[in-house]
Amino acid sequence: MKTYSLDEVKDRYIGKEGTAERDQYENELRLDIIGDAIKTARKERKLTQSQLGELVGVKKAQISKIENNLKDARFETILKVFKALDAKVSFNVELENRELDLAE
C-alpha cells in the first residue's frame, strides 16, 4: 500500500500550489483558523458570545459568525475582537519573494 504526503493529496484533490482552487482552499483554511483562535481565546477568558459582543460593540450573532464563518466579517471588527480578548495579533504578508512581519 502506497502512502501519500499531505501535500501530494492536496495537489491531487484540491489543485497544485498557485492554482485558483488551491489558493481559495488555503485562504478559507486560514480564515477557519482565525475563527477558531477567537473562539478558543473567548472561552479561555470565560466570556460568552454576548459578553464579547458587548465589549466589541456588536451583537452576539456577529460574534458567532466570526467564530464560525469568518468570510463575512470586517477586518476592523476582527481586530476589535482580538483587542477585547487582550490577544496579541501579528500578520505575515509575503510580497514578491519578500516577507513582511506586521505585528500589533
Give the secondary structure arrangement, pairings included.
Elements: H1 6-13, H2 20-44, H3 49-56, H4 60-68, H5 75-84, E1 90-95, E2 98-103
Antiparallel strand pairs: 1-2
Summarize the structure in words.
The chain is mainly alpha-helical and 104 residues long. It has one domain (6-103): 434 Repressor (Amino-terminal Domain) (Orthogonal Bundle), CATH 1.10.260.40. The protein has helices at 6-13, 20-44, 49-56, 60-68, 75-84; strands spanning 90-95, 98-103. It has a two-stranded antiparallel sheet with strand order 1-2. α3 crosses α4 (60-68) and α3 crosses α5. 12% of the residues are buried.
Short description:
The chain has a single domain (6-103), classed as lambda repressor-like DNA-binding domains (434 Repressor (Amino-terminal Domain), Orthogonal Bundle).
CATH architecture descriptor name: Orthogonal Bundle
- How much is the average pLDDT? 84
The CATH topology is given as 434 Repressor (Amino-terminal Domain)
Shape by Cα distribution: elongated
* Main sheet strand line-up: 1-2
Task: Give the ordered list of helices and strands.
Answer: HHHHHEE
